[in-house]
């Protein structure tokens, strides 16, 4: 049974307040492209923002309706879908947000962050400049069994000569 095992972060409030707070933060992020909030809240809305941008990149009517239900603002959804249609996030496969830490808040030492939408194009990783080829190892000479016997033979001759 799943008693008291809710998914997601509770953020110190009841479920309805958490849902309303997350919806408000996501809406503010899309309106301003950057918000200042605490670290835990920024991490909590990161998935919701990514989901809405993925819907916007898809661009069909079902995705638009899901985004309207998540944001609650048709005009804002239209703006987000237009940005996605213009190719703002066309080269990204995720990671649409950036969280930069500012430090602790003076009153309660909560970690304050700036969360912003990433608009820069993705930089391709540098390809290796030279291809490394495996060099064949030289054959290792096996020690011969006759060599130790040959060393013992002169010693015996010396002992016998004395």
Layout of strands and helices, then pairs:
Layout: H1 15-32, E1 34-38, H2 39-58, H3 61-71, H4 74-85, E2 97-104, E3 111-117, H5 146-161
Antiparallel strand pairs: 1-3, 2-3
Helix pairs in contact: 1-2, 2-3, 2-4, 3-4
Summarize the structure.
The chain is of the alpha+beta class and 162 residues long. It has five helices and three strands, in the order αβαααββα.
Structure, described:
- The chain is elongated.
- A hairpin with a 6-residue loop joins strand 2 (about 95-105) and strand 3.
- The mean pLDDT is about 85.
- About 50% of the residues lie in helices and about 10% in strands.
- It has a domain at about 15-115: Ribosomal protein L17 (50s Ribosomal Protein L17, Chain: A, Alpha-Beta Complex).
- A 3-stranded antiparallel β-sheet has the order 1-3-2.
- Helix 1 packs across helix 2 (about 40-60) and helix 3 (about 60-70) packs across helix 4 (about 75-85).
- It is α+β, with helices and mostly antiparallel strands and about 160 residues long.
- GO terms for molecular function: structural constituent of ribosome.
- It holds the Pfam family Ribosomal_L17.
């Amino acid at each position: 049974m799943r008693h008291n095992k809710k998914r997601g972060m509770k953020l110190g409030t009841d479920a309805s307040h958490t849902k309303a707070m997350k919806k408000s933060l996501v809406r503010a992020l899309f309106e301003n492209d950057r918000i200042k909030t605490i670290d835990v809240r920024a991490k909590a809305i990161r998935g919701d923002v990514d989901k809405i941008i993925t819907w916007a990149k898809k661009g069909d009517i079902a995705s638009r309706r899901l985004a309207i239900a998540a944001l609650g603002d048709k005009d804002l959804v239209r703006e987000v879908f237009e940005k996605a249609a213009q190719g703002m996030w066309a080269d990204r496969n995720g990671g649409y947000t950036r969280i930069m830490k500012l430090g602790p808040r003076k009153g309660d030492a909560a970690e304050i962050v700036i969360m912003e939408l990433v608009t820069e194009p993705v930089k391709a990783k540098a390809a290796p400049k030279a291809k490394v080829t495996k060099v064949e190892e030289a054959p290792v000479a096996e020690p011969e069994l006759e060599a130790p016997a040959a060393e013992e033979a002169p010693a015996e001759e010396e002992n016998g000569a004395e």
